[in-house]
Amino acid sequence: MHDQATTIFGPEDDDAPGLDELLAHAVGGTGAHMGALYLLSPEGDTLRMESTIGLPTPIASQWSRLRLDGRVPGPAAVREGRLVWVPDQEEMARHYPDAALTLPYPFSTAAAPIRTDEHDWGVLVLLWPAPHAPELSRQERDVIDLDCRRMAVLLRRAAETGHPVVPGERPRLLTVGRGVDADPEEARAALDYVNRLPEGCCALDMDGRVTFMTQTAADLLGGKLSELVGARPWEVLPWLRDPVFEDNYRAAALSNQVTAFTACNPRGERLAFELHSDPSGISVRIVPVPGPARRQAPGETAHLIRPIRADTLYNLVHLATTLTRAVTVQDVVDLVAEQVMVVCDAQSMAILLAENGRMLVVGSRNYEPEVIDHFDGLPLTAHTASQHVMITGEAEFFGSWQELAGRHRDAVPQPGMAAWAVLPLIASDRPIGTVVLAYERPHVFTADERATLTSLAGLVAQALERARLYDVKHHLAEALQASLLPSELPSMPRLDVAARYLPATRGMDIGGDFYDLIRLDESTAAAVIGDVQGHDMTAAALMGQVRTAIHAHATAGASPGEVLFHTNRLLIDLAPDLFTSCLYVNLDLERHVACLASAGHLPPLLLRPGAPAEIADLPAGLLLGLDPDADYLTTELALPPGSMLALYTDGLIEAPGIDIGEGMEALGRRLTRCSGRPLAMVAQTLIDHALDVQQRTDDIALLLLKHL
């Protein structure tokens, strides 16, 4: 897909640039030193990095997937539909603490959504070296706006032609051309020049690997030139595994500023390092520091103590801050797949939890279904690696199939997998399950890697324990919600009814929205919809009492105004601190009229045959629970056969940047467009539109009534 991603263009513009060219133009045209293009996943919940310029590979891998609810600039720009500008590190810490913790370097960043006609495609992220002006210039904003619009057009046309742009498993690192042809004689002269200098010189690419090094630099570092070129210095030389080196490398790359530090080589000689960066890589200057060499203590070796690597530290911090937002077990599974698998370069993952003496697979990625079916539900007494790790609480690592089969007789060959890390999930000092990471090739697990994976598993276990508690409470709340809403609505001649309820997408609170339809006799019925203030068990219980009170007064023959009056009195006696909006409708199908009374609720939409939907004009009385002497006026509306009434709560029309009036008008237009469809399909269409809002902070109740 990548080739098409960079070459798809419109028929009217054969010379239109591709996505790669537009990303390069955005970086160069704004003076940024790094840029990344993220595309929205088909599920609409994740941003995946498609390509990047100037971003080091370890950092690109760490940030290759961003959840749309993440507290970082990119997702925020998509959610809010606007350019997000963060001028400095202080502002980053104030508004996006997760990013500030894992990228503690001075730089400025802008994130701009890529969208067409209310359709989100992704986001463009740019980084500038500090210091930058407090605000983006007009030119910078114009370049960002133009390139984002052109990217959006390319992505839309690609989708329309049946070739949507899909990011690969890893982001593509684009190189920045110099525009200068190398002359062999000049290159040799330059090499001779740097080799004659008493200081050492080397160049690192954005992957942290040595692309060039002088012999002097190799001698100062105490390594072989042939072994250092093509490798990351801190991976080849044990004494450079101190996180100071790698942290300075990351700081130089992200801030585009000179960073410096000193370190002692194995001979005890102090060396001063200077790192200079640009979007193509980093140049390192190594200078001996005058003075006597430091003597080693007897028996001391430079690699006796191996400090944890900088990227490991940041990965742990990144995962820890990300997991704090995990609410459900599925959230944890998704985060492990998005963060741990990418960072650890694993190809497959499964999470198993102990339940009633068995191991249950609660989530997996890239495992064949038959493999999952085999392991799901196996007793703890089975001789598998997961069961053994679960019981002992000790991680196990298998570099090949032979190692796994030799130690566990119940091991099952898994297609496309050749190495495994089976890690205990320990929470509250007890194992609760395991996480299995699988690799497609034989793998040697170093001591550092084993320690890192075990630490990551510990963070995952804590998040899973919290998520399991949430899931239990959430299921209880859902059960209570279901018991308080009508399981089915009564059927009546000449009346078609459709109802929907949709909980909020965020948090574990139970909703207070309710609806009901009460059959009064063969030709009359009462419909009610309302919203209790609050989202907790108290609000839900009160909602049940309100429904019961309305039902009792309605069946006793009270008018709409009287029903609300008596219910208001009851509500004040029960809970003076909670308020409820409510709309009550009395339908007389024989007389073709509807009598309505409102207690601060949104007016219904009325759709008469041959006419567009209109907002019913009726007085909105006080909310129930405010004033014991409040009166509720009744309004009568003509309801000829074929008419439809739509009763709803505010969650159906809420959207970022849209006020309540615009929301009602937009709902009316959608209702008019689909009025000819079956009522159940109309209800689902209205609900589907609400599902497009990624984070709904309120639940939704919808009740449609059609006079046949």
UniProtKB/TrEMBL annotation:
<dbReference type="Pfam" id="PF07228">
    <property type="entry name" value="SpoIIE"/>
</dbReference>
<dbReference type="Pfam" id="PF01590">
    <property type="entry name" value="GAF"/>
</dbReference>
<dbReference type="InterPro" id="IPR001932">
    <property type="entry name" value="PPM-type_phosphatase-like_dom"/>
</dbReference>
<dbReference type="InterPro" id="IPR052016">
    <property type="entry name" value="Bact_Sigma-Reg"/>
</dbReference>
<dbReference type="InterPro" id="IPR035965">
    <property type="entry name" value="PAS-like_dom_sf"/>
</dbReference>
<dbReference type="InterPro" id="IPR029016">
    <property type="entry name" value="GAF-like_dom_sf"/>
</dbReference>
<dbReference type="InterPro" id="IPR013656">
    <property type="entry name" value="PAS_4"/>
</dbReference>
<feature type="domain" description="PAS">
    <location>
        <begin position="183"/>
        <end position="230"/>
    </location>
</feature>
<keyword id="KW-0378">Hydrolase</keyword>
<dbReference type="Pfam" id="PF08448">
    <property type="entry name" value="PAS_4"/>
</dbReference>
<dbReference type="Pfam" id="PF13185">
    <property type="entry name" value="GAF_2"/>
</dbReference>
<dbReference type="InterPro" id="IPR000014">
    <property type="entry name" value="PAS"/>
</dbReference>
<dbReference type="InterPro" id="IPR036457">
    <property type="entry name" value="PPM-type-like_dom_sf"/>
</dbReference>
<protein>
    <submittedName>
        <fullName>GAF domain-containing protein</fullName>
    </submittedName>
</protein>
<dbReference type="InterPro" id="IPR003018">
    <property type="entry name" value="GAF"/>
</dbReference>
